[in-house]
């Protein structure tokens, strides 16, 4: 039977080879791209195909589309079967037409304009032969060269991207790094990237490390992602290095081979073991493939030097290819690259040694060493030290600290992680090595960075998202103006989460990040008197930026302090960073002389008497009231009662609503005492991390010790499905995990019937139930609060509405601040 299966598989492969050779050229280079060319196609404008469609070439001018879904402005307009589209050509890389009728191709969306085609004739066993997606572009984009390659999608929870570091030789008080895939090299274009990097160099960053760039196609993080393999690639990067050098900075290029994390069918790894965060099972690298990979790394480093980069960083951590070779978790080889640790660390040593020989002694080589894997079957501390010493001997200039694999179920960069939570790891390694060491993760303010250096935890400080939040971080720190820094709050909402939504990453507290060429706060030509009503995130952003541009701004709020909803958010354990955003805006109010009037519930008459030229309503939201019998019962509270007014809450609590507010309230109620986010040792125990490093990978055999909840919490929602499904893509799992540790009970698919002295009555699966509780807390959404809009418009006042007053969905601070900044930039 096995022989028959092998014969059939072999025949399938031969058929695949014949089809491929006669029909299509495999795409292995970014410059030789196949595409769907449209000729006056009525579907081309603002329309695209989505997955589950099949395209069949009929002749040189026509394709047959089965189950084509038309989308316009994000909404499904029509689903059609067997549509003939004329004026369409499918052309391969050598400009030859595909043979009509032979191939059935599966469509996968990369973004609005670009679709990947996968041949699908049922022979999935030979996907390596034809699994490379074809590249489609609309005719107008081909002619205008607007889009070169699609931004990739990945399920990787902690994707690595542009990084910034510096060292003592570069005259920096705090050497720095920045993470996240902030800009796609192809999608946004090199001019966007050079502007982004140049602004950070001008802001004081001494050495910038680029986002991960693959040394070959197999190393892509996703289809058509950034690669440095040819001299043309090097020439394209020259604009970036020139821009950084012009501002007095230096820049290194990170060489990153994704290995089994590659979100594409050509992924390779030391062993054919599928990653839990990618649907593609990698192919096992043969000895020849390993040698070719080493050559490609060396070639990439040489090309980086040709492009005038000042050095390279070799990504050896976070669970990418090099890391995969090092540990038994992903390396089950029996040759000279597997088995003993000496064999498993052979690849990184060869890479550093051969790159050093190729680029000379003056070129910077940074090696990112995984010092704490945080996954089962990772490295022991003794193994990490042994590799570090070998890397130093092989010729590395600097060693950077890598913490955790992307598949690890322990948070490493989210806001709930204490500041500088992992610098003790670097300190321990400093005792073993003599070259400079960089420490990283959750370092966002100068005081923290200086303390780390003063206590000898590291030679260099590596920061990430703080440079999305404030490009002037270093200059402000050097001038002792840390109170003016727009602090990264570690939320991930506009940086990492955007990557998963195929959007350009930015920053919740700084929407200009990665939009520097389109969003700028220029001096106004006409000074206006502007009233801003509401001192929450939207109102603070609008008033300070408008004042910065030269307008005369008055900010009103009925509360006794600025901050709005952030004053509730900062009460949640793990969200203490929200204090920093309020501090930042209050300093901007002072610097730009915004007039602030608190404890004043302003009326339309007040605004009319004030003779303002324009009014911005940032009045926020009001909690939604549910229509349930007994909703006025004394047991019932809303989240404002709990978080703002601190009303007493009993020991058994039902929380109605499983969105962000429901999770925040539940975390608040299940916590007692000091927040572990402010205590590194307590936080490490809570997540089961061994600070002595006796446990393999820092976790094996260690039991997490979560503090018990002082209350029993029952979280309810009407719908089916996962609780917290709309939470952040990179942080939602952390919130769910935290509440599970606190033994919160999750109850879905319910219908609420009434509330009385006993508690909450509801129906689940046609069964009537009652839950005895002390309190029922309503966290079931909110409505816009804009009572001033109609009377102001009736008086002919020019009014703008931003933030929750405009769109009241899950207290969306990202939307609120972005709206406010863009309005204030143009008003």
Features:
26 helices, 35 strands, alpha/beta, six-stranded antiparallel β-sheet, single chain, about 850 residues, eight-stranded mixed β-sheet, about 30% helix
Instruction: Write down the oligomeric state.
Output: single chain
User: What structural class results from the helix and strand content?
Assistant: alpha/beta
The total strand number stands at 35
What's the main sheet like? 8 strands, mixed
Beta-strand percent range: 15-25%
Can you offer a commentary on this structure?
29% of the residues lie in helices and 19% in strands. With 827 residues, the chain is of the alpha/beta class. The strands form 9 sheets. An 8-stranded mixed beta sheet has the order 11-12-13-16-17-18-19-20. A 6-stranded antiparallel beta sheet has the order 6-3-2-8-9-10, with no helix packed on it. Strands 23-22-21-24-35 form a 5-stranded parallel beta sheet. Helix 6 links the parallel strand 12 and strand 13. The radius of gyration is 28 Å and the shape is globular.
């Amino acid at each position: 039977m096995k022989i028959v299966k092998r014969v059939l598989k072999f025949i399938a492969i031969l058929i695949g080879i014949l089809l491929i050779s006669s029909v299509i050229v495999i795409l292995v280079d970014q410059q030789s791209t196949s595409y769907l060319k449209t000729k006056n196609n009525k579907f081309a404008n603002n329309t695209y195909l989505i997955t589950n469609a099949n395209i069949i070439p009929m002749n040189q001018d026509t394709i047959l589309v089965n189950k084509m879904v038309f989308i316009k402005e994000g909404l499904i307009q029509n689903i059609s079967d067997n549509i003939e589209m004329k004026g369409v050509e499918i052309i391969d890389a050598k400009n030859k037409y595909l043979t009509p009728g032979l191939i059935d191709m599966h469509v996968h969306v990369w973004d609005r304009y670009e679709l990947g085609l996968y041949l699908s004739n049922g022979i999935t066993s030979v996907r390596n032969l034809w699994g490379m997606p074809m590249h489609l572009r609309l005719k107008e984009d081909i002619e205008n060269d607007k889009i070169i390659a699609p931004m990739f999608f990945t399920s990787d929870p902690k994707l690595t991207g542009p990084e910034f570091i510096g060292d003592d030789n570069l005259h920096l008080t705090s050497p720095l790094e920045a993470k996240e895939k902030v800009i796609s090299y192809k999608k946004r274009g090199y001019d966007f990237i050079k502007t982004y990097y140049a602004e950070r160099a001008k802001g004081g960053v001494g050495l910038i490390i680029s986002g991960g760039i693959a040394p070959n196609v197999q190393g892509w993080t996703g289809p058509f992602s950034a690669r440095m393999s040819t001299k043309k690639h090097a020439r394209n990067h020259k604009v970036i290095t020139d821009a950084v050098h012009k501002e007095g900075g230096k820049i290194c290029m990170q060489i990153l081979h994704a290995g089994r994390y590659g979100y594409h069918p050509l992924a390779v790894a030391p062993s054919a073991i599928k990653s839990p965060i990618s649907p593609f099972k990698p192919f096992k690298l043969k000895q020849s493939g390993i040698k070719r990979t080493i050559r490609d790394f060396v070639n990439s480093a040489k090309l980086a030097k040709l492009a005038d980069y000042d050095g390279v960083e070799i990504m050896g951590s976070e669970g990418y290819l090099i890391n995969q070779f090092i540990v038994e978790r992903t390396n089950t080889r029996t040759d000279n690259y597997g088995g003993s640790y000496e064999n498993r660390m052979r690849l990184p040593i060869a890479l550093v040694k051969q790159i050093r020989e190729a680029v000379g002694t003056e070129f910077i080589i940074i090696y990112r060493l995984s010092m704490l894997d945080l996954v089962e079957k990772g490295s022991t501390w003794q193994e990490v030290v042994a590799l570090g010493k070998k890397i130093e001997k092989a010729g590395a200039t600097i060693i950077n600290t890598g913490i955790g694999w992307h598949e690890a179920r322990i948070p490493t960069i989210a806001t709930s992680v204490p500041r500088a939570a992992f610098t003790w790891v670097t300190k321990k390694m400093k005792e073993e090595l003599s070259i400079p060491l960089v420490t990283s993760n959750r370092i966002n303010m100068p005081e923290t960075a200086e303390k780390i250096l003063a206590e000898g935890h590291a030679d260099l400080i590596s920061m990430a998202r703080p440079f999305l939040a404030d490009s002037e971080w270093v200059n402000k720190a050097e001038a002792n103006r840390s109170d003016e820094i727009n602090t990264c709050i570690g939320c991930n909402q506009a940086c990492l989460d955007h990557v998963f939504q195929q959007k350009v990453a930015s920053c919740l507290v700084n929407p200009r990040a990665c939009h520097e060429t389109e969003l700028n706060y220029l001096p106004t030509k006409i000074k206006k008197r502007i009233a801003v009503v509401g001192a929450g995130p939207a109102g603070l952003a609008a008033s300070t930026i408008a004042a910065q541009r030269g307008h005369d701004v008055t900010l009103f709020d009925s509360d006794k302090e600025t901050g709005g909803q952030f004053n509730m958010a900062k009460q949640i354990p793990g969200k203490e960073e929200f204090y920093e955003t309020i501090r930042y805006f209050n300093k901007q109010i002072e610097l730009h002389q915004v007039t602030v009037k608190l404890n004043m519930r302003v009326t339309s008459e007040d605004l009319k008497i004030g003779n303002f030229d324009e009014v911005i309503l940032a009045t926020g939201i009001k909690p939604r009231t549910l229509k349930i019998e007994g909703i006025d019962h004394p047991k019932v509270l809303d989240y404002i009662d709990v978080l703002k007014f601190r009303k007493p809450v009993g020991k058994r609590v039902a929380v109605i609503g499983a969105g962000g507010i429901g999770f925040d309230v539940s975390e608040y109620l299940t916590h007692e005492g000091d927040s572990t986010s402010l205590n590194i040792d307590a936080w490490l125990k809570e997540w089961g991390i061994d600070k002595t490093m006796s446990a393999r990978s820092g976790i094996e055999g260690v039991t997490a010790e979560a503090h018990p909840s002082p209350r029993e919490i029952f979280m309810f929602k009407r719908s089916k499905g996962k609780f917290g499904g709309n939470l952040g893509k990179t942080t939602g799992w952390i919130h769910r995990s935290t509440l599970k540790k606190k033994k919160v009970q999750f109850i879905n698919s319910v219908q609420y019937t009434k509330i009385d002295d006993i508690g909450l009555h509801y129906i689940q699966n046609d069964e009537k139930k009652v839950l005895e509780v002390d309190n029922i807390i309503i966290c079931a959404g909110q409505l816009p609060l804009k009572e001033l809009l109609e009377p102001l418009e009736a008086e002919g006042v020019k009014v703008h509405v931003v933030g929750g007053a405009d769109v009241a969905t899950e207290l969306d601070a990202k939307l609120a601040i972005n709206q406010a900044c863009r309005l204030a930039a143009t008003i």
